[in-house]
Write a structure and sequence with these properties.
The complex is a heterodimer of chains A (336) and B (286).
Chain A: H1 2-31, H2 36-40, H3 47-56, H4 63-75, H5 89-124, H6 129-143, H7 146-160, H8 172-175, H9 183-189, H10 193-229, H11 233-240, H12 245-282, H13 288-297, H14 301-329
Helix pairs in contact in A: 1-14, 5-6, 5-10, 5-12, 5-14, 6-10, 7-10, 7-12, 9-10, 10-12, 11-12, 12-13, 12-14, 13-14
Chain B: H1 2-39, H2 77-113, H3 115-129, H4 133-144, H5 148-175, H6 178-185, H7 190-226, H8 238-247, H9 253-281
Helix pairs in contact in B: 1-2, 1-9, 2-3, 2-5, 2-7, 2-9, 3-5, 4-5, 5-7, 6-7, 7-8, 7-9, 8-9
The chains are: A mainly alpha (336), B mainly alpha (286).
Chain lengths: 336, 286
């Protein structure tokens, strides 16, 4: 019962947030000097052109009217038509979304594995040089953002020691092999190891750039809560039963230490997805973020709006999911 | 016991070293930025098409007049890195301070007055958290037009929530303490309590966040100039140089590497300075 009420409450706040995002994007684009028509106009447009364009996109109506028309369309799945591509915004966004989701998911997996291992190592060999080394690694990981990691990885593994390709999602010739836009999932499901290898080679560096800051955060927080759990009586009991230290940490301390980390990973995962915008640009990876920057540079208003709303929807859904997962996993929140 | 004391001493020395190193780099960079017009060996905008993509001075085929080499248009990399430091630090200082002022003020109001003020500000923070920050920044620049002022406005508009969230929690915690209650009992008005009792206790937190925010501002400026939305296309910015270097990475690595090193050290220094200050002065964030 409590769970259902919590879910209903969170769904309501999520809806409020999304409407807020939509209003802000809409207003920012229209109210601030340099109106959208000016943004869209090619140099040398005539007065008649301007008037036609205004009527076409409904800019001759009031902002509130424009918003209602647009929001009504969005609710029916109509995000408008891209000005540069002359195709429905939704189609373009859905075409690129899988690439971004796959990149972000891969990055999340790397971050969890890397950060988890660091935390376990730091907790296993606590108060030794190993823990000090883990702390220094975390410190650097935390203060260097994904954009810089991307550039450093490009230099190291693209130029100095050219192990990996530094641009694109896959070689264009291989892209024709796929039936859907979920290349990674498709390659795994069809057991096409050749395609999987080619994909991972392209995705590894951008995913790593996105993963490193998150890995450092996971390592720091998980190590901290592991060390706190290690002092609890039931862990001492396991130890006096004669279990090896590594087993005590994994089987006894870890399940209890994971919860606080989980909440944080949720919030940080949205930051990671936000980071895909610039990382995709850096690696010429054809995802939603790269499309977004092109849309801004080309002043493709309907497309910008659609992409921002999709990103915001993704963010709020992830937050909602993490919140619910936390409620489901935390015995204290399970029913009063 | 002696071991523990020694361990603490080592930790403190390490933290001290961290503060000195990061502070030292930032001070040197600030000096270089201030003096750039005088110490830069060349005009950062001067092109020399016959001296394009010259390698750094210690490599074969270099011209010793260009210590760190030249880019594809024959502009001196060293001079551009030095002038780029001016842009980076100016944005860090101005955008960081403005963000801190606005964000902390809203956080204080929300945390101390509670009620509808808190509800309104917290809702706004929630909405803001749903925006992808880089995309939001690029969108704002596209709307506002390029230029230093736009970059600063974009950073303030996007990042005020960082301060608001933390300061709100801090003001709430301080507001619940006895010393605040006794100040109120002694007849001090609410606004005065906020300014003279709560604000001073939030200052260490704000200072740490400000240091971290400056590092973020440097990165945001670099990202915006990387996607060519910063000041102008040929103005010397680290991000712009990096963007050009990324294109010619296989022919002229130095165009990318030197601004990247400067950017890396600066961002690392702000981050480490913030963490070091946190360990030393701030009991809340620690």
């Amino acid at each position: 019962m409590m769970f259902a009420r919590r879910l209903a409450f969170r769904l309501a706040t999520t809806a409020v947030t999304l409407v807020g995002v939509a209003v802000i994007v809409f207003v920012v684009i229209r109210v601030v000097p340099g109106n959208p028509i000016a943004m869209m106009l090619p140099p040398g447009a005539t007065e008649a052109d301007i008037a036609r364009l205004r009527a076409l996109y409904g800019f001759d109506r009031s902002i509130a009217e424009q918003f209602l028309i647009w929001a009504g369309g969005v609710l029916q799945g109509d995000f408008g038509t891209s000005i540069t591509a002359r195709r429905p915004v939704l189609e373009l966004v859905l075409g690129r979304l899988p690439a971004t989701l796959e990149l972000a998911t891969l990055a999340l997996c790397i971050a969890v594995v890397l950060g988890g291992s660091l935390a376990l190592a730091g907790a296993r060999w606590r108060e030794t040089r190993t823990e000090a080394a883990v702390d220094v690694t975390n410190g650097i990981g935390l203060s260097v953002p994904d954009f810089l990691w991307g550039l450093i990885l490009i230099l190291l593994f693209g130029v100095v020691w050219p192990l990996f390709p530094i641009s694109g999602r896959i070689a264009p010739a291989l892209a024709r092999e796929f039936a859907t836009n979920f290349y990674l999932a498709e390659a795994i499901l069809r057991l096409r190891l050749d395609l999987l290898g080619a994909l991972l080679a392209h995705m590894l560096l951008p995913a790593l750039a996105l993963a490193l800051p998150l890995a450092a955060i996971i390592a720091q927080l998980l190590k901290q809560s592991l060390k706190e759990t290690m002092h609890l009586d039931y862990v001492t009991l396991a130890r006096t039963k004669g279990f090896a230290e590594g087993r005590v940490i994994r089987a006894e301390a870890l399940p209890n230490a994971v919860l606080p980390t989980l909440t944080l990973v949720g919030v940080q995962f949205t930051f990671l997805i936000g980071g895909t915008v610039i990382i995709e640009r850096l690696f010429s990876y054809e995802g939603l973020g790269n499309l977004a920057i092109d849309a801004v540079i080309n002043r493709d208003l309907p497309l910008i709006q659609g992409i921002v709303i999709v990103f915001a929807g993704l963010f709020t859904l992830i937050n909602l999911g993490v919140d619910m997962l936390y409620a489901a996993l935390n015995p204290r929140l399970r029913r009063g | 016991m002696a071991d523990a004391a020694e361990g603490r001493g080592a930790v403190r020395r390490r933290a001290g070293l961290r503060l000195w190193l990061s502070g030292g780099w930032l001070a040197a960079l600030a000096a270089a930025a201030l003096l750039a017009p005088w110490i830069a060996p060349h005009d950062p905008l001067a092109q020399d098409l016959f001296a394009g993509r010259l390698p750094p001075a210690w490599q074969a085929g270099a011209d010793p007049a260009y210590l760190l080499g030249t880019d594809s248009l024959g502009r001196d990399v060293l001079s551009r890195v030095l002038h780029g430091a001016r842009v980076a630090l100016f944005v860090a200082l101005v955008a960081g301070t403005l963000t801190a002022l606005i964000g902390a003020a809203l956080g204080l109001l929300a945390g101390f007055y509670r009620g509808w003020v808190d509800v309104a500000i917290s809702r706004l923070v929630d909405i803001w958290m749903a925006f992808p920050p880089v995309l939001f920044a690029i969108l704002l620049i596209a709307v506002l037009g390029t230029g230093l002022a736009s970059i600063i406005v974009a950073i303030v508009v996007i990042d005020w929530t960082r301060f608001a969230r933390v300061v709100r929690a801090e003001a709430m915690a301080q507001g619940a303490m006895d010393y605040v209650a006794s100040a109120r009992v002694a007849g001090m008005g609410r606004l005065r309590t906020l300014a003279t009792e709560i604000l001073p206790n939030c200052l260490p937190t704000i200072g740490v966040l400000l240091t971290l925010e400056m590092g973020i501002a440097v990165i945001v400026e670099a990202i915006l100039s990387f996607v060519n939305l910063s000041i102008s296309t040929d103005a010397p910015t680290w991000g712009g140089m990096i963007a050009e270097g990324r294109l010619s990475i296989h022919q002229a690595w130095w165009v990318l590497v030197f601004p990247l090193v400067a950017l890396f050290l600066t961002v690392l220094a702000f981050g480490q300075l913030g963490e070091g200050l946190k360990d030393r002065f701030d009991p809340v964030l620690r």
